[in-house]
Amino acid sequence: MKKKIESYIAYEFRNIEKTDEVLEAMEEAYANLSDLYEDLIAKGKDQEEAYIETIKRLGEFSKEFTKKEKVEYAVKPKWADTLLVISVVFGIASLPVLFLNLLIGSLLLMVSAGCFSVSAYFLYENANFALVEKKDLYYHNHTLEKIYKFVRLNKNFWMISISLIIALVFNKLIIELFSWVFYIATPEFDVDLLIDFETRAKPLFALLLFIIILPICLIVGQKQYNKALRKYVDLTGNTHIGKKAINLNKENDKSFIIILFTGLLLVLFVVGYFGGQVSYIVKPQWGADVSKRIIRGFEFLKTDYYLRTSLLGIINFIIWIVSIIATVIALIKSKKQMVIIHHILTGLFAISLILSPLFFNSYYTEKISLTWLAYVEIAFLFIISVLLELRYFILKKQKR
Predict the structure, then answer these.
(1) Closest CA to 215 of 163, 253, 155
(2) Would the pTM count as exceeding 0.70?
(3) Which of 19, 128, 215, 318 is most buried (most C-beta within 10 Å)?
(4) How far apart are CA 105 and CA 168, in angstroms?
(5) Kindly report the CA angle at 193 between 189 and 199, in degrees rounded to 5?
(6) Cross-strand bridge partners of residue 241
């Protein structure tokens, strides 16, 4: 029990600078409370009762407390723990379900958030009662730590699912709006052409929106999580959740701006890559219908360009996909290894893109050359590399 008394004193002084005067006061309080505890034990008090009476004498807690125990504290909150587990299961399940059905996936996400909210509220109130009425610091801290562990488990799945929901909703609106404009602006309406466009464009636009929305949601979610962590540190005095140290400085304003700008460049890079397929031939047929050339730009794996350049074109496309994935991971994790991988993929993509016309021209009579869009794509990737290095430098400097 004396160890619990010492822990409680440390908890009360957790937000006070540990000057010599403060340390002396803590030692004096511990000595006085230890003596009081021994006196209460000698008078026939049991350990739990003596501990509570002793802690009540500490500073502002010297006032009278009711000894009546609330019913909810006497009942082990198994149902609350079950709801926390359900929130994780539904949070994870909502992600793949969203690809099958937007409505059901959204409902699963809401159930996940609802289960967590109900459970967290009950456990938080339960922990506060344990601290105020029972002076049980261990139970208080352990319960709050449990809540924050499940926040950490859920937050990324929630943010990814929310990003996907926003992307799918806006994707549907944009495609329908474009189809309506296409219908109004095209005198000779071709239904098959419109259906073909919607079929090919929907996955691309959804990907574009998801790429730009995901980093924003993750950063906003991380900032809110950091605020919650600061509250956790204030309430418990702990700097760890489990074995993992708490880092409250994962993102700052400069880093946030870099992420948004990099995400925008990444979207432009994707658009430029597909747009480049519209006019990759030296003498394009500019008299062709504009809508047909736009649709042709979305036929990334089926374009003549990739069929004719064979293996090199496919390698080019694979490097492009992996480069985007590496960029997103580097934005989220900000690990030096991911930044280096992005640099390597950028170099490989640039080399592959530049060599594609040389490879094509050596085997076919029809000649092609890189358009200005191809060079813009390469420039985008190199700019993103610089931004990733800058962000890594900012975060590294911030940790010092």
Answers:
(1) 163
(2) no
(3) 215
(4) 12
(5) 135
(6) 244
User: Does a structural domain hold residue 351?
Assistant: yes
**CA-only gyration radius of the chain, Å:** 30
Same domain, 308 and 205: yes
238 shares its domain with 315: yes
Nearest to 116 by CA among 142, 172, 155, 145: 155
- Do residues 92 and 110 touch, judged by C-beta distance below 8 A? no
Helices (H) and strands (E) in the chain, counts: 13, 2
**Residues of the chain where predicted confidence (pLDDT) is lower than 50:** 60-75, 251-253, 275-309
CA distance 377 to 145: 46
Cα distance between residue 331 and residue 299, in whole Å: 28
pLDDT tens digits for range 20-64:
766 777 777 777 778 888 888 888 887 887 887 777 776 543 333
| One-letter identity of residue 69 | E
Burial category of 243 from C-beta neighbours within 10 Å (exposed 0-12, middle 13-18, buried 19 and up): exposed
Distance CA(141)–CA(325), nearest Å, equals: 39
Domain boundary among the residues 127, 154, 181 is at 154
Token pair in block for residue 284? 């394009």
65 φ, ψ to 5°? -120, 145
Strands (E), the chain: 240-241, 244-245
With CA atoms as reference, report the closest residue to 365 among 285, 297, 308, 299.
308
Residue closest to 9 by CA, chosen among 48, 64, 69, 57: 57
Residue 39 lies in a domain: yes
